[in-house]
Amino acid sequence: MKQLLVTLLLACSALSALAEQGNTQVYIGTRAEGIYTTWLNTKSGELSKPELLVKLDKSSFLCIHPNQKTLYSCSNIDKETGAVSAFKITDNGELSDYGTEPINGKSLCHISLDATSRMLMGANYGQGSVISLSIKKDGSLGKLVSSHKHTGSSVHPSRQQAPHAHSIYSGPSNKFAYAPDLGTDKVMVYIIDPKSAILKPSGFAKSPPGAGPRHMKFSKNGAQAYVLNELTVSISIFDCNNTTGKLTLKKTVTTLPKNTDTEGITCSEIRVSKDGKFIYCANRDTAGKGRDSISVLAVDPEGALTRIQTISAEVRIPRNINLDPSGEWLLVAGQRSNTIPVFKIDTTTGKLSYTKYKVEVPAPMCIEFRE
Fold it and tell me: What is the pTM of this model?
């Protein structure tokens, strides 16, 4: 017991020292033991040795309250009961239990907060549904408020025989939420009420047949929505009407160079640079031929996209990518290589270069930064 106390005190001391050095803290959700942390040196790009902060089953996706005082994670209560767990963030970046709420279904694959941080939304891939919970003023979780199951299918013979809600986000006006559904080739639209945390169905936008919409982001001015298509390795550009919530498909562009053999390649995550001029997305080689990559696309003033770079992801199966708060570094969660490499971002050209820095983390699934 005495030795355990000494170990915990040493870990706390190490976290405090890293925080005082002005490094940026990184939280990592995993499919292994739980939530890990590492610290990014924003001058060199080097990461500290990762440490396990919290043991948690299926901490596959994370999000942080804007006040930086609460971290939320997908979790499981048991094999049949998914949940959302909340953790208080201490001054030195440690996590303490802040409650867990069941979500009336199996584990979620994605969670996010609305712009007011008064409601948390989640997507359930296996059950093809979306949910919402209220968030209390102190950042703790309220009860489950909404649950909506999608219906339908699409053209892919094995991946689109049923709904598969893959993510959900509040839109630029925070009046609507959008949920890409891989199984139905639709982006479902919901009216949101942050005060009550209620989701109300409000139609959908169609993606190209067989596209498999997975994740999405919005342009800096809110005029476009960029939907990453997992199955066709592409991004669909939608015009976004922030008054009605309507999405209008304009164009779909590939994330890879022309004539690339895309058999066995799927997309996973999409991010937009701080200035809105560049988009980054991850391409996964499920066939194991070493083609895992990150693509960079330039955004023109009208919202159109042009691919300008595709670079090795330096991992096996890049499940998630994220840009640090400075916009100068990009980290990649290598789900099967159990590694997280660091890329330097040229903020003028948007292009990436590998720093050679890489740390080991078991089954990393999601990367979040503490600002």
Answer: 0.94
